[in-house]
């Protein structure tokens, strides 16, 4: 069995990273769609907002940002990484105290993340 050349190893690694990037973007897009539904539902139900409802939305916003932050930089999505890191840091400060105001701020972070996600996806497809 012949050893792989350095060039073959680099080509293989590049292929793996490209596939991982596409999977990351696809998953992030699917999660964004679900999150948008949660945000829309929260916005439409002004009368049913309570600390439990706010907490559930806040937690889902946090999990989305945290998940993106963990992988984005690895797959070359620096803009997504920076935005998700900012959203993650903000959400950590409010994890147990999601108010309408803090949720609206977090939703603004998410909207910027969605824009960056679509920009990254447009490069791929």
Task: Provide the descriptors you would attach to this structure in a database record.
125 residues; mainly alpha; 4 helices; elongated
Describe what you observe in this structure.
By secondary structure, this protein is mainly alpha-helical. It has a domain at 51-125. It has helices at 6-44, 51-72, 78-94, 100-124. Helix 1 (6-44) runs antiparallel to helix 2 (51-72), helix 1 runs antiparallel to helix 4 (100-124) and helix 3 (78-94) packs antiparallel against helix 4. The longest helix is centred in the N-terminal third of the chain and has 39 residues, at 6-44.
Spell out the blueprint of helices and strands.
Layout: H1 6-44, H2 51-72, H3 78-94, H4 100-124
Helix pairs in contact: 1-2, 1-4, 2-3, 2-4, 3-4
Biggest sheet record: none
Strand coverage percent: under 5%
Q: Which percent range fits the helix content?
A: over 70%
Q: Average the pLDDT over all residues and give the rounded result.
A: 92
The count of DSSP E runs of length 2 or more, i.e. the number of strands, is: 0
Report the oligomer.
single chain
Q: What would you call the structural class?
A: mainly alpha
Shape from CA axes?
elongated
**Low-confidence spans:** none
The secondary-structure element order is HHHH
Helical region count? Answer: 4
Radius of gyration, taken over Cα atoms and rounded to an integer in Å: 18 Å
What is the CA-CA span between the terminal residues? 37 Å
């Amino acid at each position: 069995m012949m050893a792989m050349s350095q060039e073959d190893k680099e080509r293989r690694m590049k292929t793996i990273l490209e596939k991982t990037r596409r999977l990351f973007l696809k998953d992030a897009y699917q999660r964004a769609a679900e999150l948008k539904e949660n945000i829309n539902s929260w916005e439409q139900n002004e009368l049913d907002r309570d600390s439990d409802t706010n907490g559930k939305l806040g937690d889902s916003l946090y999990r989305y940002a945290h998940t993106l932050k963990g992988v984005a930089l690895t797959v070359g999505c620096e803009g997504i990484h920076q935005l998700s890191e900012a959203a993650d840091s903000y959400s950590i400060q409010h994890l147990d105290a999601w108010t309408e105001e803090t949720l609206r701020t977090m939703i603004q972070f998410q909207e910027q993340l969605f824009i960056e996600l679509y920009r990254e996806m447009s490069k791929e497809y």
